[in-house]
Amino acid sequence: MDNFFKSENKLRDAIQKEIPLSERMRxxxxxxxxxxxxLTDEKSPLRQAIEKxxxxxxxxxxxxxxxxxxxxxxxxxxxxxxFIPFSASSASINEVKRAIKExxxxxxxGTRCRRQAARVRAxxx
Length: 125
Description:
Helices cover 49% and strands 0% of the residues. The termini are far apart. It has a single domain (2-109), classed as P-loop containing nucleotide triphosphate hydrolases (Rossmann fold, 3-Layer(aba) Sandwich), CATH 3.40.50. By secondary structure, the chain is mainly alpha-helical. It is built from six helices and no strands.
């Protein structure tokens, strides 16, 4: 049985090494998220909407490394919102149309979920 746990740990370590450092270091909640205080402060309108799970569609724009993807992932974890990461500079028009069509279908059905779409790097952040 001891060998089983050693094998499992080796596999987990090997998988972890394949994940980019920036992804491993990405915070999972607001406690680890620094910057953008005007958006993430507990009294901000956005933070209150997140806490109440009362959000509509959001689009974040900014330079690489400014926290757009991290903030979107935190929001997705804290709400029942669907998170579809893609970069407007590298996504094809078909990807954008597909995301819009899916959002429209979910609106008609009145459903939201937290499942993440295939990962596409969002402007390097």
